[in-house]
Specification:
The complex is a heterodimer of chains A (109) and B (160). Chain A is built from six helices and three strands, in the order ααβααββαα. Chain A has 109 residues and is an alpha+beta fold. A three-stranded antiparallel sheet of chain A has the order 1-3-2. The radius of gyration of chain A is 22 Å and the shape is rod-shaped. Chain B folds into two domains: 114 residues, Alpha-D-Glucose-1,6-Bisphosphate, Chain A, domain 4, CATH 3.30.530.20; 31 residues. Chain B contains three helices and eight strands; from the N terminus they run ββααββββββα. In chain B, a hairpin with a 5-residue loop joins β7 and β8. The chains are: A alpha+beta (109), B alpha+beta (160). At the A-B interface, α6 of A face β1, β2, α1, α2 and α3 of B.
Chain lengths: 109, 160
């Protein structure tokens, strides 16, 4: 299994989350992104590579420059990933409510 | 339609909140967390039967529960310490799934009455780390994918 392609692994890192926030408003070159961090340029490049590999970032070529921009579809996928967890709790609570309502109606009989 | 159960899990945090409004009076909602027979009934589903091996609903109490499948095989066991137990108000406890890498989580349940016949539960769950919280969050997501995958295999198997 290639962990680097795991989007959740990708957003677990604070620098990578900061990069995503940066490019959310506008596409930027690697140099412009790196200028926002104190980390060494190759480290930022590595982060960009990981984010690109798991499709959170897209590359676009303008002349000689490569711009990075956010892939909104992939971000949406992350936003939806807690839905199964919410659904699991919702099912549990629905069952609780049903059972307690039965107890309530038995009592009032 | 507004969702009855809400989960708030901010990115990069080691905790999350779950809130739910019930069409039940506060006392009845709290009973679902205090009476062993009711707890077992709630924790059971068509595939597994839950049993409380230990349950001390009081300050500095503890609990242990397990679920068995139709063949009687234990498929899930969890335990924890109950730190605070205030009837109709609050339960603070730890929760640990045995034989899993998920560590322990601290769970704070707060119960409140909305009207005479409705109530609300606020759950605050704190994990050992951001990574661990995200692992637990992903669990049903992964299971969902797995089930879909198994279903596909099942259907594909029939086509052979």
């Amino acid at each position: 299994m290639n962990l680097r392609r795991d989007v959740f692994q990708a957003i677990a890192d604070p620098t990578r989350r900061a990069i995503l926030l940066l490019v959310a408003s506008q596409a930027m070159t690697a140099g412009a992104i790196a200028a926002n961090f104190e980390t060494a340029r190759p480290t930022v490049s590595k982060h960009l590579q990981i984010l690109t590999e798991c499709d959170l970032l897209e590359q676009e070529q303008y002349g000689r420059e490569i711009y990075y921009r956010l892939n909104p579809d992939k971000m949406k996928e992350i936003a939806n990933f807690i839905e199964p967890f919410r659904k699991m709790w919702d099912d549990r609570f629905n069952q609780l409510e049903t059972i307690m309502k039965q107890i309530q109606s038995k009592k009032s009989e | 339609m507004e969702l009855k159960t809400k989960v708030n899990a901010a990115e990069g945090k080691m905790d999350l909140t779950i809130t739910r409004e019930f069409d039940l009076p506060l006392e009845l909602l709290f009973r679902a967390y205090t009476e062993p027979e009711i707890i077992e009934q709630i924790m059971s589903n068509p595939y597994t039967t839950a049993k409380l091996l230990k349950f001390e609903g009081r300050n500095h109490g503890s609990y242990q529960q397990e679920s068995t499948d139709a063949q009687g095989k234990v498929v899930f066991r969890a335990n924890g310490a109950i730190h605070e137990f205030r009837p109709n108000k609050k339960i603070s406890r730890t929760f640990e799934m045995e034989n899993t890498p998920f560590g322990i989580q601290l769970e704070i349940y707060e119960f409140e009455a909305l009207t005479d016949s409705t109530s609300k539960l606020n759950m605050h769950v704190i994990y050992e780390s951001v990574a661990q919280r995200d692992q637990v969050l992903k669990l049903p997501f992964a299971q969902g994918l797995n089930m879909a995958h198994n279903r596909i295999q099942e259907i594909a198997g029939k086509l052979k």
